[in-house]
Each structure stands twice: as structure tokens, then as C-alpha cells.
Write a structure and sequence with these properties.
alpha+beta; Nucleoside Triphosphate Pyrophosphohydrolase; 2 domains; 12 helices; globular
Length: about 325
Amino acid sequence: MMLQQTQVETVLPYYERWMKSFPDIESLAKSNLEKVLKHWEGLGYYNRARNLHETAKRIVQKLGGAFPQDYETILSLKGIGRYTAGAIASIAFNQEKPIVDGNVLRVLSRLHAIPKPIDVPKNREIFWQLEEKLIPKGGARFFNQALMELGALICKSENPLCLSCPLSEFCAAFKKNEAENYPVRQKKKDIVKVEASAAVLSHNGKYLITRRPLGQIMGGLWEFPEWKLAKGRTLAEASIRKKTLELLRKDFGLTLGRLSNLATIKRNYTHHQEILHVFSVVIETPNGAALRSRKNWPLAWAPAKDFQRRPFSSAHSKIAKRLS
């Protein structure tokens, strides 16, 4: 589940740390969600962590504490789709179930010179059926891993090592000298630029943080107050400051005259490139600690040392580290 949309090199240190804290399903099930999210901090796609936690609890409560080996039961677990179920069933239990990740898509599309765009969902079924037919009986564990490794190390997206490939004599794209033309994709979407701001409010040595509700993007994570300011256009610094002050007044009832620059953080998403402008301000008013948010999200005034136990998104974790 950690390897969903994340590379092995990135996952390994998180996995090792995770296994020290949660060495088995029962220890994960018993843990609180905040600790689980803290261990996931920085990996992104936080729904995976919440799903793992829910799945562990279900296995302990409903399945006798043992991870199921039946493919359909695996597939029914929260956060486990066709790819993950295939990976678990074939690699852990050697069942003849396909795994189609980006590497496998690339190998199969070149091997058969498939002209259909791989980023069109209805075309994916072609690759699932092809891969399933190729799995040798009793050899799913090694075959699926070998196919993924072939894509990662030899049949690379750029400069594929065709002359070193054990499948080159069977490869339609290689025979046509068109390996780099596959896999076929639809026209890429333009990257949309987003301007955002965050405010680090401090009062008596503590900082205001707010927790995103479960069910929303990055639900359960703490963050400093943040706002999306503009999409598809660049704002002048004066405009960013003005909008941030207006939002602090609107959301928290704070009338402030000046913000100090703290940091500028760039965040890249699938089709968005965001610049987060981070400001800091000290709240001097005696009732500063009694602030309420218009969003009704949980709020806390926390000292910097407290950030070590609270889970933040990657960008807000960077802010927290600057304050620690």
C-alpha cells in the first residue's frame, strides 16, 4: 500500500520506521489515528494511511487477526484495489493474479506495439488481460516482480536499454525501431499554477494550528491556517499580503496591520504547481488564545515541541521544522 503511486527508494525508510512501531496487524489496529498519520508524514496520499488503519482494525475484529489469502477478500479490504490485491496475492501468496503498474504498462505496450493511449481508463483492461495470460503456472511471485523490474531497469521510459533486453527479439516496438514512441498517451494536460498563503500565528510562545476534518483531502492532518488565493494567474506580493490579511479577519476575526515573511514553499501535484507564501505574526491581544475559526475545524495553540507528535502535510511539516 505504501508503494501505491510512490517509488521504492522513497518508501523504504518510511517502511522500516513503520515496521518498528507497528510490527504486526494488531499493534497497528490498537494505535490511534494521529500516531499512524505521524508515521506517514511526508509520504503523501494520506488516505492510504487511514485505509491501512481501518483495514488492520477490520482484520483484527472480523477476520481473526490474520491477513486473508483469498483474492476476493483481499480486494474487499479498504484501500486495496485491483493493483494492490494482485501484488499481495501474487507476491505474498504466489497466486496467478496480474499486477499492472506503470512499468508493466510500458513493457507490454512496447512488446505488442499497442497504439491505444494508456491514460484512457477503458484501455487499461487490454493490459490486465495480456499480463494475466503471460503468468506461468506456479511462478506468479517471480514473474510479476521480474516484469516490473524489467520496466524499471531496462525498458525505461527514456533511453530504454533495448540491446540488453531479454525480450527484444519478441518486441514489436524494437523491431520497428520505435520503442520510445510507446506507450502512447493522450495529450498532456497543462500545469495550472496556484497561489496560496499560510499564516503562522503565535501567542505567548504557542502557535495556532488547525486540524483538517476526516473525509476531506489530508483529513486528520494538522496545519497552520492556509488559503488558496488564485488559480491560473500570478499575484503580486502586495496583493497576496492584502488577501491574507482579509482572510484572517474573515475567518478568525483578527484585524492585523502587518505580516512578516517566513518562507515560500513550492508544491507540485499531478496537474497543479502551487506556491505557498508563508507569513508570521504575533498576536498580542489578551484574548488571542480564544480564537474561533469560521470553518469550525478543531484548533489548538501548541508549543513548537508539540509538533513532533502531531502529523502535518509535507509543506506544513517544513513550516513546523522552521519553528522548532
